[in-house]
Amino acid sequence: MKLTRKQKELGAKFWIYLAALVVSVICVFPFYNAVLTSLRTGQDLFLTSYLPTTFHWDNYVNALVENGVGLSLLNSFIVATVTVGVCLLVSITAAFALARVRFRGRKYILFTILCVSMFPQVAVLSGMFELVRFLGLYDSIGALILSYTTFSLPFTVWVLTTFMRSLPVELEEAAIVDGAGLWVIISKVFAPIMGPSLVTTGLLAFIGAWNEFMFALTFIISTENRTVPVAIGLLQGASQYELPWGNIMAASVVVTVPIIVLVLIFQKRIVSGLTAGAVKG
Amino acid sequence: MNHNSESLSAPMAAVTAAPPAQPARPATGKRSLQQRRSRAAWVLVTPALILLAAVAGWPLLRTLFYSFTNAALDTPEEYDFVGLANYLDFADGDKFGVLADPLWWQAVWNTLWFTFASVSLELVFGMLLALLMNQKFRGQGLVRAAILVPWAIPTIVTAKMWGWMFHDQYGVVNDLLTRAGLIAEPLAWIAEPTLSMWAVVIADVWKTVPFMALMLLAALQMIPSDLYEAARVDGATAWQRFRRITLPLIMPAMIVALIFRSMDALRVFDLIYVLTSNSEATISISGYAREQMIAFQEMGTGSAASVLVFMMVAGIAASFLWIGRFNDEGKENKE
Amino acid sequence: MAQLTLDKLNKRYGESAQVIKSIDLQVNSGEFIVIVGPSGCGKSTLLRMIAGLEDISGGGMYIDGAYVNDDTPSERGIGMVFQSYALYPHMNVYENMAFGLRLAKLPADEIARRVEESARILQLEPLLKRKPKDLSGGQRQRVAIGRAIAREPKLFLFDEPLSNLDAALRVQMRMEIAALHRRLGSTIIYVTHDQVEAMTLAQRIVVLNRGNIEQVGTPLELYDHPANEFVAQFIGSPKMNLMPATLLTAGATESVVRLWNGKELTVPIPTPASAEGTKVKLGIRPEHIEWGSVADAPYLADVLFVEHMGNETYHYLDSGNLGEPWVVRNPHRSAVAPGDTVGYLLPPEHCHLFDDSGKSFERRGGGAVAMRVPGMDAPAISFAEPMRTNVIH
Q1: E-strand spans in C119-172?
Q2: How far is CA A32 from CA A203, A241, C182, in A?
């Protein structure tokens, strides 16, 4: 029996929806599981039940106040914001030159920047350690701002360069005819148009800095200066063998929710930013 | 710039014409447009370059420098040059140094295996996911939002969440597998050396498939739909359409995404450090280098390991580029 | 209003690629010059060199006698209208027009006066507060022109300004630009690949090909007296037919050629004796070929296709193995059908003659000149009806 066109289409639709459902569940389940766990205490923690059983907020209070994750959140926020601010400021002019002006050495600079954005963090670890100590920044969030620039700056330059390239050449020429110098072109013509791209780039760089672990683990000793990933990574319970899963999951949920909300709000932009950084590269 | 290319495409025939006599050029003392612009360009890139040199170039050089010394982490000022001893040294008929350390080679193997396993799984799942999201169906926005969740979750949180799910006694994974009748006994995902690498790979794949899928999706969406219509008219099956149209057209984007992901996977540290506590069965080269440097305070050895990590990643990147160059030699004239 | 002089202007990229080769051109004050040529001929590069957006590799450029090679666009005092309009998307119409004036640090009341003046000229007053994205294509074009006008430039440059508009709007904007020029009397240099735009707008046309000027002249000069094959074929649509021939007898007033089919034709074109016996090409425009009866017309051909445009008809005649089909344009409906054999005439007064290198032998007078005789209406040349009755089926 030959299926009609309509039946075939229905069949295809069924598989598509099934696949979409499976994908969504797999993507969201671990986070959902973390939320479930974070709301349980005591022996409930070890229940493998897939529906909420209890709603205890103790874990959240514990994690945020007693384990100092609240303070870590603030540290993370400061570090990521300052890093991104500095990087964007420096990279917007560099990106303009790299995207818009043909000059000797442009290709080499772009290649270098791409290389730096890909090289392993551990390669600069001991040199950075020395630099951080030399500047007296050891065990302060200044050390993180400095070291995060290593990977944030190449990223922002690269992504902004691809964005700048996509702006029409004639717009810049119109500004030149109007008597604008490079600085005016950047600040009065390009920067205002680039607003959305700057937000996207900044957001991606922010997430990168927010999630960084190795430098934060190495350059910070004091609990009160820790960033969120380290605070969660090193969260210990009463005994070494029993991890406080409830607290850990509560902290995880707390640091993840703002990022997820941001990402969902700026969904479209983030996707375009990711692809601008990679596909066109 | 299309103006340039337009004019450049003018036939070369005219080159043979004798150069025209130049009228005397009045000296205005001004620079030409191009000169002014390239000067300004250098001014504009300088801050970024200086900053980059300070936070990347300099530390990299110092790491290289320290790799030839026996400095300790707490007193880096006091050191002696030891040549290549941190890398490989022969003394009393025995071998020393990073390259003689079986743990280093274990870490190399771990890293390569992790990279290979997770990137190839990501490619397969990412492709499937991209093909799914390229379909038109209701609730597409929801699925897109859902797949962004793993991407948005910090790696450390991923590690903790999966660590909890892989818990040998109370973990969801064992529970589900038991209920499905696939295993009789709970598995020690984290402690068992043969399983722990899979735990790491699964967590990493879960987190990074969305990135791969979005890259591939962006490439898919650039394929004009009339190509598929033309292929349908020609009677191509779904598989033929994928094999003959989709795959070749997204190949460049796919290779770029693969390079990005491989570079990322080769420097893995945080996921393994947190999920399996840097156990020997899973330790990565980055983890090894950091352990030498920080945990053992051996700045020299750690730096040497770092340099080796750098060289390994750079070597793999270079070979990717080399292969890539072969692939698009024909297209090179476009630039 | 200014005078522009280009003295052996040239442009090279690197060592080898010379895209503009020693251009000499004098643009008079208040003149409307159109630079036209096929894509890749260097016309945009030339315009951008004049604008100051592209460096000049050699030669001199003078505005009102002053050397400006190294001046910035604003120092040169040019206003430019771009193909894509290039309006600043984040500024409204007023700000778009005022941006350059603000950068020039003009006093506020002067800026307001100039913007309002140019808005009035282009009827943009109701749109001043709008952003470019809220404007139609034609309005954006007007704003782009208004922005150039507000600068009160010495020189207006237009880079294919109409190519992004649809056909109807293009005709309308063409007339507006022509009217604007009459009104402002400014010096305009206008680049296009469209020879119709060139013919309708220009006081003088510069035909550019491969970085060289092929010919400079008024539209009708180019039409009647093309300097070479390239100009002959580039100006006029459909393009001029070229037929191989040999120069039999040269003469001071007329020459005899033997055409590809052995027929001899005497044309009123002087040729030097040295050219006698050489290969030449006979050119005739599609609108100048006349129908003759199959019985006694000197030339016969099979019709390949017929295109009915409504107001006119194009007939494509089989040229045998001589290359492209020859086109006959007829200002009437035609009953000729593909496959018919037709007879036709080549009126000698409309013929052009090109030497082997493509250069034309200067025509004297010629039929086209007769058009300008006072009192005669334009279509003075008789377009004969196709000889339907004589068509062999």
Answers
A1: 155-159
A2: 24, 25, 73
Give residue A277's pLDDT: 58
> What is the pLDDT, as a whole number, of residue B281?
87
Whether residue B106 is contained in a domain is answered as yes
How many domains in chain B? 1
Q: Has residue B302 been placed in a domain?
A: yes
Q: How far does B36 lie from chain C, in Å, by closest CA?
A: 10
**Interface contact C21-B14, CB threshold 8 A:** yes
Where in the sequence is the domain holding B287, given as residue range(s)?
98-329
Pick A33's closest partner by Cβ from B2, B161, B169: B161
Report CB contact under 8 Å: C53, A177: yes
Neighbours of chain B (3+ CB pairs under 8 A): A, C
Whose CA is closest to B324, among B269, B253, B264?
A: B253
Cβ–Cβ gap A178/C87 under 8 Å: no
CATH architecture of the domain A63-278 equals Orthogonal Bundle (1.10)
Q: Residues 6 or more apart from C2 whose CB is under 8 A from it?
A: C29, C63, C64, C77, C154, C155, C187
In the stretch 3-22 of chain B, residues with CB closer than 8 A to chain C read 3-4, 6-15, 17, 20-22
Other beta carbons less than 10 A from residue C78's beta carbon: 28
Q: What tens digit of pLDDT does each residue of C110-169 get?
A: 999 999 999 998 889 999 999 999 998 889 999 999 999 998 898 999 999 998 888 888
Strand spans (E) along chain B: 89-91, 94-96
Q: Does C114 touch chain A (CB under 8 A)?
A: no
Please report the domains of chain C, with CATH numbers, ordered by start residue.
4-230 (3.40.50.300), 231-390 (2.40.50.100)
- C149 within 8 A of C120, measured Cβ to Cβ: no
Best of A173, A176, A177 to disrupt the C interface by mutation (most C CBs within 10 Å)? A177
CATH of the domain at B267: 1.10.3720.10
Residue B283 forms part of a structural domain? yes
Residue extents of the structural domains in chain A:
5-56, 63-278
The secondary structure of C179-232 as a DSSP string is HHHHHH--EEEEEES-HHHHHHH-SEEEEEETTEEEEEE-HHHHHHS-SBHHHH
Helix axis angle, B155-165 relative to A245-265, nearest 10°?
Answer: 130
pLDDT at B64: 93
Task: Give the minimum alpha-carbon distance from C35 to chain A in angstroms, rounded to a whole number.
Answer: 20
Q: What's the average model confidence in pLDDT over C270-283?
A: 90
* Contact between chains at A173 and C53 (C-beta distance less than 8 A): yes
Query: Are residues C45 and B9, on separate chains, in Cβ contact within 8 Å?
Result: no
Taking the Cβ of residue C90 and every Cβ of chain A, the question of whether any pair is shorter than 8 Å is answered with yes
Residue type, C137: G
pLDDT in tens, chain B (335 residues): 344 443 433 343 333 334 444 445 566 666 777 788 888 889 999 999 999 999 999 999 999 999 999 888 888 788 888 888 888 888 777 888 888 888 999 999 999 999 999 999 999 999 999 999 888 888 888 888 888 889 989 999 999 999 989 988 888 888 888 888 888 888 888 888 888 999 999 999 999 999 899 889 988 888 888 888 888 888 888 888 888 888 888 888 888 888 888 988 999 999 999 988 888 888 999 999 999 988 888 888 999 999 999 999 989 888 888 877 766 554 444 33
Helix (H) or strand (E) holding C316: strand C313-317
Q: Given a contact as 3+ CB pairs under 8 Å, which chains touch A?
A: B, C
Residues of A in contact with C51 (CB under 8 A): 173, 177
A9 interfacial to chain C (CB closer than 8 Å)? no
> Which of A177, A179, A192 lies closest to C90 in CB terms?
A192
Above 60 in pLDDT, residue C190?
yes
Q: Is A123 on the interface with C (CB under 8 A)?
A: no
